[in-house]
Amino acid sequence: MIYKIEERPPFKELIAYALQMLLAVFVASVLIANLCGVDTGAALVGAGCGTLIYILCTKAKSPMFISNSGNFVAPVILALGIAGYAGVLIGGATTCIIYCIFGIIFSKIPVDNIYKVFPPALIGAVTVVIGITLMGFIPGYLGETGQWGTSIALITAVIIALISHYAKGMVKVLPFLLGILSGYIIAAILTFTNICQLVDFSIFKSIHIIQMPNFAFSNLHFDITSASLITIIIIYACYSISQLCECLSDHAALGGIIEIDLYRNPGLSRIFIGEGLSNLIASAVGGLGATSYGEGIAVVGFSKVASVWVSGTAAVMLALLGFIGPIQTFIASIPACVFAGAAIILYGYIAASGIKMLQKVDLNDNKSLVLTAATLSIGIGGLVIGSADFAITGTALALVMGIIINLVLQDDRTNKKSN
Prior knowledge:
With 419 residues, the chain is an all-alpha fold. It has 18 helices and 4 strands. A two-stranded antiparallel sheet has the order 1-2. α16 (366-381) packs antiparallel against α17 (394-408).
């Protein structure tokens, strides 16, 4: 790593690294706010504050970026329909309590025992699943832009690859920032020449320098029936358990990339409590759930900058965007197809990091081979267990089944001794 977790880059570098992180997480953060129908500015402020709370809880020992959760879209929409923002706040409080309970439980369990449940084969396979699952969102970024949108995405990806491979000095560690800006310029040229309308410049017509977000806490009305209350709590509790699994896998992936055992330091107890409080803040401020971001993990690994000062500065920037109209509008004007180009590298990097972890696993060992194979198949295959109200899918299901298989199968060495 160029900068370790506790190291602070010089101011100019810090701003550049933070802006790169900001651009990586911006699209998903805004997209989820739009899907749930909440105020975008408030959602950005909530996400930024959530990351800062997480950093405080983990004693600034984890560079994870926390933002708006796609897994909580369904319960958020349900809670908004039943009881408005008060319902979302109750849901966020439920998630926070569950995370904190698990944080206390894991504080009593030795880390070595945790790794008996989460062996390297499982962590590596789940990391691959995370990357491949995220890849499925790339076509959605392209939308209906057609061949030109796909071309811009591919050009952006190539520019990022070229900068990362051939550039020197500071430029080399800012491939996503420079690649996205290059893609934006090309998209703008295509728009101005009427070849393809990729950039919506009309959004610049109604810019306000300073704008006050419509915060969730300013719209609270606690006229909730007991039946609605119970429904919200149960739904959020179920989704929180699923999200806990992804929290475990995300931090294992980040720890593997930066070569620091985050399960030990800052520890799973602080990680869970930090994400739990982030959910509470995100629900109160932006009306959404919160989760760790794979985009942030990939940026840390690709730039080789693990400094928590970067993720913290990016969080402050994201929160300020909720108030500053021109900058928010400029970033919002960047076509999603440009971000798709960055996502090609970002998400692929996460999957490749998992493959790198699996290279250290002895796949001649039958238990490790079966565990890896089952986890990959379940996670990538799109298997779902549950109903329309609640379901465990993708990464969470792969992790749960991987844990079960790991606990059921004996080690090969144990079998040999018994024979």
